[in-house]
C-alpha cells in the first residue's frame, strides 16, 4: 500500500526545543533580540549554504520576488519577461511592483524557448527565470543574452533548492535568487521565503522595503564580518523607501533552520526516486519524461511527464485511473482554474497567445514524489501510472486488436 504521497514532510525533532523556547519567551518578532535572532541566524546559515554573500528571509517566495523587483529600482510601468509556464504568484509579483509581465514561450521540455526569449528581450527591463518544478532553462544562453543587453536576471528558484548548473547552485547565477519554504517545497515551514544575492545595494534596499524600520537594519550585519559596504548601502537608503511588512517570524526560522543540514540528503533521495520512476515510465508509448539538460543536476521533489497520443477524454481517464489507485496527478492545462495555466491569469494587462506553451500544458502532468518514498514505493507509483495510461488509451490502440 502506498504511503500518503501528498502529506508535507515532517519537521525534524531537533526543531522542537527552539520552538518551545520561543513559545515560552514569546520572542517571535525578528527584531526584538539585540542580535542572533533565529531569523538572523537562518539568513547567515542559508547564505553560507548557498555560497552567497547576503540573504534576506521574508514571508514567502512571492514576497522575495516582489522585493527583488522593487530593489532593482526599475522604472514604473517597465516590462519584465517571465516564462509562460510558471505559477500565478510570479506575474502577480510583477504587477504588484508596478510593472508589466511579458510572457515568452516554453517548450515541451518545460524550459524557455530561447528563440522566442531572444526575440522579446529588447523590449523588456528585467527577466525572471522560473525554474519551474526544478526544470532549468538554458542559463548559459539566458545569462549571456541578458548581460549583453544590460538586463538584470532574477531567478525564481522556488522549486530548485539544491539544483545545480555546471556545478553552481541555482539561485546564485542571476542578480538575485528567490526560494520558497512553503509546505510542498524541499524545506517546509508552511509559508516563508528567502532571497540571496551578492549585491550589497540590492539587499540593503530589500531589507528596508521588507519592513526594517528606523535602524533595525543594523541587526542584518553579521558580527565580525567586514560590513562596511553593507553599512554604507543601508545608510544611503535610510528613510528613502516605503516599508512593507513582509518579514519572517522567529517561529518560522526555528522550523527551517534544522532542515538545512538535511537538504543534501533530501536532494539525493529525491533524484533517486525521480530517476527510478522516470526510467520505468519511459517504457510506455503514452508517457514521455523530458530529459534534463547536460549542465543540470536536478533536485526533484515531484515528477513531470507528458502524455502523448491521447485525447482530452483519455487524459482525464488517465487522471481518474491513477487517482483511484492512490496517485494524484494534475494536468496543468486541463485542471480547472489551474494557477500554472497562463490563460487563467485574467489579471494580466496583456494576455499573450502562446500556442506552443498552451499545447504543452494540455498534456503536461505533475505528481508529487517525496524524498521519503522507498524504492518499493517508487516501483508501485510507476506501475500505477503505467496501468492508468494503458487503461485510458482506447482498447484498439492499447492492445492492438
What are the key terms here?
401 residues; alpha/beta; Aspartate Aminotransferase, domain 2; Aspartate Aminotransferase, domain 1; 2 domains; seven-stranded mixed sheet; four-stranded antiparallel sheet; 14 helices; 14% strand; globular; dTDP-4-amino-4,6-dideoxygalactose transaminase; pyridoxal phosphate binding; transaminase activity; pyridoxal phosphate
| Parts with pLDDT < 50 across at least 5 consecutive residues | none
Mean pLDDT: 95
Text of the CATH class of the largest domain: Alpha Beta
Distance between the termini: 33 Å
Shape: globular
Q: Number of folding domains?
A: 2
Q: What quaternary form is this?
A: single chain
CATH overall fold name of the largest domain = Aspartate Aminotransferase, domain 2
Number of helices: 14
Fraction of helical residues: 25-40%
Secondary-structure element pattern, one letter each = HHEHEHEHEHEEEEEHHHHEEEHEHEHH
- Proportion of residues in β-strands: 5-15%
Count of extended strands: 14
Structural class: alpha/beta
Side by side, the strands of the main sheet go: 1-9-8-5-4-2-3
Supply the CATH architecture of the largest domain. Answer: 3-Layer(aba) Sandwich
Radius of gyration: 22 Å
**What's the name of the CATH homologous superfamily of the largest domain?**
Type I PLP-dependent aspartate aminotransferase-like (Major domain)
Main sheet attributes: strand count, strand direction, barrel closure: 7 strands, mixed
Amino acid at each position: 500500500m502506498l504511503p500518503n504521497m501528498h502529506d508535507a514532510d515532517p519537521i525534524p525533532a531537533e526543531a522542537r526545543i527552539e520552538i518551545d523556547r520561543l513559545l515560552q519567551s514569546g520572542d517571535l518578532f525578528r527584531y526584538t533580540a539585540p542580535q542572533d535572532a533565529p531569523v538572523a541566524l537562518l539568513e547567515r546559515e542559508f547564505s553560507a549554504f548557498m555560497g552567497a554573500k547576503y540573504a534576506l528571509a521574508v514571508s514567502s517566495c512571492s514576497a522575495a520576488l516582489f522585493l527583488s523587483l522593487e530593489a532593482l529600482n526599475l522604472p514604473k510601468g517597465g516590462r519584465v519577461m517571465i516564462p509562460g509556464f510558471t505559477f500565478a504568484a510570479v506575474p502577480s509579483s510583477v504587477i504588484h511592483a508596478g510593472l508589466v509581465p511579458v510572457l515568452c514561450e516554453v517548450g515541451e521540455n518545460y524550459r524557455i524557448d530561447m528563440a522566442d526569449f531572444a526575440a522579446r528581450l529588447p523590449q523588456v527591463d528585467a527577466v525572471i527565470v522560473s525554474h519551474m518544478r526544478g526544470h532549468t532553462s538554458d542559463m548559459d544562453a539566458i545569462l549571456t543574452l541578458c548581460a549583453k543587453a544590460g538586463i538584470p536576471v532574477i531567478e525564481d528558484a522556488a522549486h530548485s533548492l539544491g539544483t545545480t548548473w555546471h556545478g553552481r547552485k541555482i539561485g546564485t547565477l542571476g542578480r538575485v535568487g528567490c526560494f520558497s519554504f512553503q509546505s510542498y517545497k524541499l524545506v517546509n515551514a508552511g509559508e516563508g521565503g528567502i532571497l540571496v544575492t551578492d549585491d550589497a545595494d540590492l539587499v540593503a534596499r530589500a531589507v528596508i522595503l521588507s519592513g526594517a524600520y528606523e535602524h533595525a537594519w543594523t541587526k542584518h550585519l553579521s558580527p565580525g564580518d567586514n560590513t562596511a559596504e553593507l553599512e554604507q548601502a543601508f545608510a544611503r537608503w535610510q528613510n528613502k523607501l516605503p516599508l512593507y511588512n513582509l518579514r519572517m517570524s522567529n517561529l518560522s526560522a526555528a522550523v527551517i533552520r534544522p532542515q538545512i543540514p538535511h537538504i543534501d540528503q533530501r536532494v539525493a533521495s529525491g533524484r533517486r526516486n525521480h530517476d527510478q520512476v522516470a526510467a520505468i515510465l519511459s517504457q510506455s508509448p503514452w508517457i514521455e519524461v523530458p530529459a534534463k539538460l547536460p549542465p543540470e543536476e536536478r533536485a526533484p521533489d515531484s515528477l513531470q511527464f507528458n502524455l502523448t497520443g491521447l485525447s482530452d477524454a483519455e487524459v482525464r481517464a488517465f487522471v481518474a485511473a491513477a487517482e483511484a489507485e492512490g496517485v494524484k496527478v494534475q494536468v496543468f492545462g486541463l485542471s480547472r482554474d489551474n494557477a500554472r495555466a497562463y490563460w487563467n491569469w485574467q489579471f494580466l494587462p496583456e494576455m499573450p497567445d502562446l500556442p506552443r506553451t498552451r499545447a504543452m500544458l494540455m498534456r503536461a502532468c505533475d505528481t508529487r514524489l517525496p524524498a521519503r518514498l522507498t524504492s518499493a514505493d517508487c516501483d508501485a507509483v510507476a506501475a500505477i501510472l503505467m496501468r492508468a495510461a494503458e487503461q485510458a488509451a482506447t482498447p484498439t490502440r492499447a492492445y492492438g486488436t
